[in-house]
Amino acid sequence: MTSESAGDLPFVSVIMPHYQDLGGLEIGLAALEAQTYPKDRFEIVIGDNNSPVGLAAVEAVVRGRAQVVVITQKGAGPARNGAVAASRGDVLAFIDSDCVAEPQWLEEGVKALSRFDLVGGRVRVLVSDPARMTPAEAFERVFAFDFKTYIEKKGFTGAGNMFCRRPLFDRVGAFGVGLSEDVDWSRRAVASGARLGYVPAAAIGHPARVTWEQLSGKWRRINAETFGLMTGQRGQRSRWLARNLLMPLSAVAHTPKVLTSPELNTLGQRLSAIGMLYRLRFWRLWDALTLLRTTRAG
C-alpha cells in the first residue's frame, strides 16, 4: 500500500470483544500491529466483558495499543456494542480477541467494501503441531469456521471476521444478547438489503479446540441455549428433538467430507477426525435426551 493512497483510505475501528484470555489477547494485538494497512488509519477498541482478572491486568497486556471499554453486561454481543459505541471509524472491522489476523486482513477487508456492503473473510483453523493433531483438532480443521459455506450457501457471516461501514451498522442496530447474536445480526443486515460477500484474502486464524472436554463443552452450551430458546414455542421443541435424533445419521453423511478434506494430510488424521465426528454426534444426541429428561423431571 503506497503512502500516496493512504490519506484517501477510510479510518477503521477494529472491534474486539474480550473475556479473561490475556494470552490470546496479546497474540491478537501483535497480529494487528503487523497489518499492512497504515497504522494512522485504524484504531483498536476492546470491549472487555468485566474480566475477573481486572481492568489493570487487561491494560497491562494492551500497553496502549488499544482503547479498553469495560462492559458489565455479559456476552460477546454487548461487548461488541459497547466497543462500537466508543469507536470513531467510518469502517467497522470485527475480530475476536483470540484470533490472529493475517498481515493483509484489514487492507483486503476494506478493499472489498467497494464491492459488498457486508464482508466475511476466511478463518483458518490453527493447530499447535500440524503433524501431531489431536482428534479434536483434526475434527475442527474440517468442520469449524466454514465462512465460505456460511456466506455463499446459508446467507450469513460471523462477527469473528466481519467488515461493514458504520451507516450499515447504525441502520441494522445493535447485536442481540444470547445464542448466535452475530448470525442474527448479519441476517438482519442481509434482510435490510445489504450485499454480503466472501473475501478469502481477508483471512484470520482461530485456534482449534484441542481436547474432548473443550469440544463437548462448546456443544453442551449450544445445546442448552438452543433448548432454552425453544421453550414455550409451539412445535419448536419437537423439531429440535427430531434434528438431534438424526445426529448419528449426519455423521455418516459427513464422513466423505473428512475423507476428501484438504485440511488433513494423513490417513491417521482422517481416521482420528472420523472417530471424533461419530463420538460427538452420538454425544449430542445423548445430551439432548438428557436435557429433555431433566426438564420433565423438574
How many separate structural domains? 2
Query: If helices are DSSP runs of H or I spanning 4 or more residues, what is the number of helices?
Result: 13
> What's the end-to-end separation, in Å?
62 Å
> Percent helix among the residues?
40-55%
* CATH structural fold name of the largest domain: Spore Coat Polysaccharide Biosynthesis Protein SpsA, Chain A
> Order of helices and strands, N to C?
HEHEHEHEEHEHHEHHEHHHH
Give the percentage of residues in beta strands: 15-25%
Q: Sheet bearing the most strands, described?
A: 8 strands, mixed
* Structural class designation: alpha/beta
Number of strands: 8
Order of strands, widest sheet: 3-2-1-4-7-6-8-5
Q: Based on CA inertia axes, which overall geometry fits? A: globular
What CATH architecture label of the largest domain applies? Alpha-Beta Complex
